[in-house]
Input
Amino acid sequence: MKKIIVTLFIICSYNFLSSQETFTRKDTLQGGLRPERTCFNVLHYDLNIKINPEEKYIVGYNEITFGMEGKSDVIQLDLFENMEVDSIIFNSKKLTYKREFNAVFVDFPEAFQSIGNKGKTIRFYYSGKPIIAKNAPWDGGFVFTKDRQGKDWVGVACQRTGASLWYPCKDSQSDEPDFGATIKVAVPNGLMNVSNGRFMGNVDLKNGYTRWDWEVNYTINTYSITVNIGDYVQIHENYKGLNLDYYVLRENEAKARVHFEEVKPMMDCFQSKFGPYPFAYDGYKLVETPYLGMEHQSAVAYGNKYVKGYLGTDRSQTGIGLLFDFIIIHESGHEWLGNSITSKDSADMWIHEGFTSYTESVYVECQYGYEKGQEYINGCKENIDNTSPIIGPYGVNKQGSTDMYEKGALMLNTLRHIVDNDDKWWEILLKYSKTFRHKIIDTKTVVAFFNSETGMNLTTIFNQYLRYANIPKLELRKSKGKLEYRWKANESIFTMPVDIKIRGKKYRIYPTNAWKKTKSNINKIEDIEVLTNDFYINVNLLKKL
Output
């Protein structure tokens, strides 16, 4: 498995997302770490399927190689209940199994001892019509459509719903195949399938189908494994030693050649800030899809219609968001932060989305300077609700608030200004990316890392932004000619420095939950300017005492 950074799991850290929200056994089977899941470690997936676009039908198998972490005669795999289990073969014999919702409990003739990386292999045959997405990528499922020439165009996005909606696997972010995956997909002649990893060739099956073979040479999370079927043309170049490949509909080749030039400055920026592209041997791909986009590892889904911004709009409402293609930048940022570094539980998806949303302003800063980057990230405040926590409930395949995107990014921008040393900040982010490269982590690991690297105790800051709906509020008042200040926060002992200006002069103050007083005299409370572009907080100016 991709190495998991082990930390103490504290269920109370979830922080009461919704006391009225209830979860079912189906939820815990999909999101939990039962003994039938933790007893084994996936080593490799070998997916070999045929997809019939006309019938919207999949048939084939996934050959799963695994090692035992303990001793057990049963393991849990996952396949949505609308898909058929045709048979499960081990040592040329059919295994028995039991289905419960989307979980498949596979029985072996005897309990296995720990076998490390040597591995055992089962072949899981299956078939069926997968879920059709209503609004991909926001809901999980396949998209079956046609291009303008009337040819089939097919894609899948399954991040929130689960990869087991279309292939059998250990559908948990806590485990990724140590030795990657092979993905072999047969599609009707005249079409191409593009999946993750390196292209290994295609085979005419002499039955009206051609199989397209791909090999992933790194660990990969299950929702990143993908298929893209269409009348694609390939645009290839090598940029500073890295293979860049773009698979686009034939009709869009000319515009793609121009539009995708943005990949090069993006690569320069992100590699300078977060280290070398984490899947260099597999190469980087953009694949045109019939939905907006998704961070499929080494096969990034692109559906932004070759326009700047987010489908031609600016999420920051500053005009800066129209200077770049949002989907290229955001979804590619996930290669470092979300694919290379993966959260153990979907409750901690802010580790993917908060850091990656921050890469948008990083890219703006690389291209246009610090001030533009800050203007962009602060313009995104209008997209935040602050009505529920960013972290979701653990063990039930449930993400937290969509505030994990912009609020997570603004929390990081706040941390940058707490550090108050840009050289140190960029060193910390680079070390974060390198330390946890190709690893699975959780929130406590992230907090411990930043505490260690900054030499500060940032725990209450992370807690306030991640585990509560509210952001901290700085209260200011004038008392006997002096400025008094304190934090109002959910954390019972909340400490965070913040910068203010008094009559244009910058000061750093260190509020807590209790009132503190400055030594400087002030004439009126309105003389105080709080640097809210540097710190994502609310401010309340109280009447003088």
About this structure: DSSP finds eleven helices and 29 strands in the chain. The radius of gyration is 25 Å. The longest helix spans residues 350-368. Residues 473-541 form one domain.
